[in-house]
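Summary for the steering committee. The consortium agreed at its last meeting that each partner would contribute one worked example illustrating the joint modelling workflow. Our contribution is presented below. We chose a case with several input lines so that the handling of multiple components could be demonstrated. No manual editing was applied between input and output; the record is shown as generated.
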Amino acid sequence: MKLAIKLAYRNLIGAGLRTWLNVVVLSFSFVVIIWLKGVMSGWDYQAKSDMTKWDIGGGQYWHQAYDPFDPLTLTDSHDSIPKEALSAIRKGDMEPILIVQASIYPQGRMQTIMVKGINPQQTILKLPTKKLDTITEAIPAIIGSMMAKNSKLTIGDMVTLRWRDMHGTFDATDIVITDIFSSNVPAAEISQIYIPLDRLQQMMLLPEAATILTFRNTETDHPQINGWVLKTKKELTQQVDDIIKAKSVGQSILYFVLLLLAMLAIFDTQVLSIFRRQKEIGTYIALGYTRQQVVGLFTIEGSMHAVFAALVSAAYGMPFLAWQAKVGWTMPLDTSEFGMAIAQTLYPVYSLGLVVSTILIVLFTTAIVSYLPSRKIAKMNPTEALRGKLQ
Amino acid sequence: MENNNIITIQNLVKRFPVGKGEFTALNGINLVIGKGEFAGLIGPSGSGKTTLLNIVGSLDMPTEGTVTVLGKSIGTLNTREAARLRKENLGFIFQSYNLLAVHTVFENVEFPLLLLNFSKSERQKMVMDALEWVGLTDKVKSKPPQLSGGQCQRVAIARAMVKKPSLVLADEPTANLDAANSHHILQTMEKLNQELKTTFIFATHDEKVISYLHRKIYLLDGHIDKDERMHHDKKTKP
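What follows is the complete predicted structure of the assembly.
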């Protein structure tokens, strides 16, 4: 094996440009695959991190009737804050949020929205709720930049809010936009307006009521509360996992094409080698190699392209990947319209597992691609090979 | 006397499939070659000399009969055993040199020693000795494409001789060389035969080679036509 590696190394270095062309193509595949996977990991990390910071905290209790995908359930999906939660709320480790369907009328157009009542002093979510603790002639409200863009609202704008209280009676008041935040989390921004919890409870005639309870700490053991459903952070970020999984399938096609290009070059080189190097193969056998050892030598030679490619990738890929991790990759389109938690600039995250698994996959694929044409050597007649006669 | 025999061939027949029939390349060959001989298989193209050389070199198998080389019956060897016989005991010299083009002269000559797991220092010494025999110590770093035909064949001789094999098989070693180079390499091989007692067997129809042979085995249509032992006299050579 050691000898085969030594000979394969000599043969590859001796082959010069032919080797380096294959190596460069393969190294490009290495870098692009690691980069793309890094971007996906970065997106995954960023999306979950942003969702945690802006929308779901460490997890939530949902009122048993609450279904975020069915606004009709909102009328009944609230209840008094359970006794089991009071202690955590007092400590600031849990925040009740009341969610109500309503309409706003920006510039005379009606727009259906969700009003979320939230404690202005909360510190669990990154929302700038302190801006709700403002004395204004209208109810202070904060909105996300996606909502602001859709509704053409800016800070200081006043807009009419219309809702139905617990008895089904319509009522209306003005709200004033005191802040606009940017979170990259569509669920926290699109058609969402945040106002102080106590004001919304008064408007709805639902004192001490909440729809969801957001808690801070994921690690703490959260007991079952009667009438409320525990939603862990993992469950709440499942959607991100599903989106990334779907995107990964699409990306796999790109990896496949990239690898195919590199493998095609190596396969071509191997096939060509076996035709062009018949005399050499015969000579190896005459000097004492078995045909299987020659197959091994050619397989190692082909596989060594991947080793060289990994080294070349490290030379130019590491600075590139490090630079990308620092400056990120800015999406060419406005990501706020994508409808999913994606930042305008994605910062790739590379793990050791990602790099090692990519190297192993490419090595393994290269070894197979190198071995397949080399098997032909095992059937060669050495005397014909020595004369360089095509077989 | 029996112990001095390096090759014993009895009733050797070799047939090759040709289309739906068979072609008999060797037919009833009986031959004994002793240690230290400088012998040649002589005959026109198609007489079976290369086929016989290939069988002796365990690169091909007999169809019938027995061929014993250094005590090993070629027909019964598996590929691993045949490879071991070649690796440890045989040296090959080919008409078109068959050097590894991307390797240096040193690496080409070193190759058989790598297969035999010699240490680096041993390899260094043995390769330099072999290159000294053929007068190419100044070309260690050159690659075959940078050498003349004569130099390439001298590298091939060095590669065949470096492990000091019992038997060297040379197939038309001068076919691609001019007269001066042919005599040079033949003198080199003759010298090695005398100094190291290595057995040389040539397959040739080149008069220059024939003039150096101590034993001339004439093949015609797959059988031995004539077997002459020469009283060797250097002065008769050109």
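Chain A is about 50% helix and 20% strand. Chain A has a mean pLDDT of 88.
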